[in-house]
Each structure stands twice: as structure tokens, then as C-alpha cells.
Amino acid sequence: MISEQLKPFHIRPEVLDLNEQLVEVRRDLHRHPELGFQEHRTAEVVARDLRALGFEVTEGVARTGVVGILRGERPGRTVLVRADMDGLPLREQSDASYVSQTGNTMHACGHDGHVSMALATARVLAGRRRGLEGTVKFVFQPAEEGPGGAEPMIEAGVLDGPKVDVALGIHLWAPLPVGQIGVTQGPFMAAADNFDITVLGVGGHGASPHTSVDPIVVSAHLVTALQTIVSRRSDPFESVVVTVGSIHGGTANNIIPDRVVLHGTARALAPEVRDQMERRIGEVVKGICEAFGARYEYRYHYSYPPTVNDSAVTALVADCVREAQAAPVICRTMGGEDMSYFLNRVPGCFFFVGCGNPSRGITHPHHSPFFDIDEDALPLGVEVMLRAVDAALAGRDLALAAARG
């Protein structure tokens, strides 16, 4: 029976018929989460189901990734559909019947739902292969949560053979309620870089601070000063975050240590702003440390770049959302995603599918040990993805780009 919550949406019968299976697959994967590059069981489930549907299947891509290719009876464009598979190193705190059975590992970001939706999309498309014009390439990616599986899969050739024309990705998103779909052109998710700072002081007795160079005091000033990069050195209309998430130093209350180690993250939506962060943080570190007579070591690590959606493909997805009678909304997040690597090379769109529902107590954020989704989001996500795949195969994004001049 169709959920009352889904009745306002235009979801085709073959998708609604898969609702029980969507939930079953998602809950099975939720019970058995696996960390990045350890998704062996998940990959087996994916490969088995794709083979049963008649896909050309390649396993072991970038260690645990799976690629399934569905070729239509007529030649045409190639559309890539990406789903990430990994869980998080987190102990789930839930009384749900499908709670994680793997110690200190949990699907706390919805990747179990991503895999389930992608497999359901594959099933519907396989059922009408004869009318399909073009090729659909399903990429089930490992290690999105780290250290990153998209780039290794690209290096393994997933964008070739056949060459991908459009890339689509889907992410369940708890801040949005079921029925809202986050579709945003341009920068959508932030670059997610990291930095390490070691403040090198001179140790001594806590009762004689004048004989030392206290790296704890230096670090306190440093944490505060780093925030001026956001508040005083960045355009207020540009989204920037600098967070020091870890500080380690000292062993006792009366000992001034000789070093303090800080680890942090820097986030920016615009690529040109991101390129300034390494220098700006380095300038603050140098200035503060020199002012207090401390030495320092500073390393900046570039990680996932900003996730930037192509304007024409995003317009196509927004049209598909409206056709499904759902609500496209503009939203951005300073979270990072390695879907960005696909979108750096191929025009495409990464979009959010709302899965929150306060009336059902589904309010906890991503990466929380209490995280869960409203499973009514799953068939709606499949419907929008199917419409987007069909539209991309038909070249509607090219028509939209041409209309915009």
C-alpha cells in the first residue's frame, strides 16, 4: 500500500512496486555497514543484483568498487549514476530492528539508502532496455567518507569505455523533509581541506612561566586569530569555515610543555577562495608564533575540491523534480564530497533528497549515532533519478544550455 506521504508525488507504478525491496535492501545494508575500502559484502550484494539484471559487471575497481553497464539497443549518450557504499566508524545508538550488527561501524550518512536507490533505478531501466537509447553506467564507489574512492575509480577508467557524457549523483539529506529535493547550480558543497600545526615552545615549570615559551598560550591566541580569516579577511558573501578540531599538549598542571599540536579543517565553496586558504592560515600561524617567540611547523593538505554542479544539467534535474510534483529547493552545505572529482571532469549534478521527518522523530543530523532516514524518501529519489537519466540520455541538458545562449 502506498504511503499517504507519497500520494501527492508522481511516482510511476514500477517504482512504487519496488518500495518493499528498496526498504529491504537498505535495511540489510544498514545492519552490515563496512568502512572505506572494506565494502566486500556490500560489493557482493551490488554485483549479484546487477548480474541478475543482465548488466555488464566489473568488480574490484579501485579495490572494492563495482561498475555496472547497461547498454540500450540503440546507440546514444552515456550517463553515469554514482552511489557511495561505505559507512562510518561510529557505534550506532538505536533500538531499530535494523540496527548495525557491526561493532563501532554504522551507516550514519545514508549511503545504505544510496545503494538501494541506485539498484532500484538499475532494475527499472533494465526492464525497458529495448527502448533505451544510449548507455547507463552505474558506479558503486567505496570510501567516500575517507580516504576517498572517487579519484581512484576515475584513475581506473570509469569515465571511459564508453566515455561518460553526464554524471548524476544522489544524497539523502536529513535537514530537508521528504518531498523537498536540494538542487543547486554552481558550488554546492565545499572543499574539505585539512591542516596540521605544531607550535614549538620552550618547556618549563608552571610557576616560572617567564623562563619558558608557553605553546599553550600561543595556541590559544592562534585558535582565536585563525577566526579572523573568516570574519576579517574573507568577503562576507563568500562561504568560508576554519575550524580547529583537535588540540594536544601538556602532561601535568604544573608543567609548561615544549609543544602543542593542532589539527583543523578549512572549507570554502568557491575554488578561487579555497586557493587562498593555505597562504592565509600560514600567515596567521607565522605572525602569532613569531610574536610570542615560538617556532612552528605547518602543513596544509588539499582534500576533496568543491562540488560544482553544471548549470544546464542542474536545470534538467530541477525540471525532473517538478515533473515528479516534488519541491526543488536551493541549498548549500560546507560539508565535502568526493563526487566533486566526477563533476570536475564531466558535466553533471549532485542533488539532495530530503529524508527528515520530525513527526516520526527523524531529526538527528548526519554522522550522529542516532541518525536515521524516513524511508519514504527512497522511491521519490528513484523517481527523480529515473527522470533525470531519461532526460540526460535524450540530451535535454544540451537543449537547455543552447536556450540559455
Description:
With 405 residues, this protein is an alpha/beta fold. It has 2 domains: 4-188 and 307-403, Zn peptidases (Aminopeptidase, 3-Layer(aba) Sandwich), CATH 3.40.630; 191-304, Alpha-Beta Plaits, CATH 3.30.70.360. 33% of the residues lie in helices and 27% in strands. The strands form 4 sheets. Strands 1-2-4-3-5-16-6-15 form an 8-stranded mixed sheet, sandwiched between helices. The protein has a 4-stranded antiparallel sheet with strand order 10-12-8-13. Strand 3 (74-84), helix 4 (111-126) and strand 4 (133-141) form a beta-alpha-beta unit. The mean pLDDT is 97.
In short:
With 405 residues, this protein is α/β, with parallel strands linked by helices. Helix content is 33%, strand content 27%.
Count of individual helical segments = 12
- SSE order: HHHEEEHEHEEEEEHHEEEHEEHEHEHH
* Secondary structure category: alpha/beta
- Sheet bearing the most strands, described? 8 strands, mixed
CATH architecture of the largest domain: 3-Layer(aba) Sandwich
pLDDT under 50 segments (min length 5)? none
CATH topology of the largest domain: Aminopeptidase
Query: Total strand count, please?
Result: 16
Percentage of residues assigned to helices: 25-40%
Main sheet: which strands, in order across? 1-2-4-3-5-16-6-15
CATH class of the largest domain: Alpha Beta
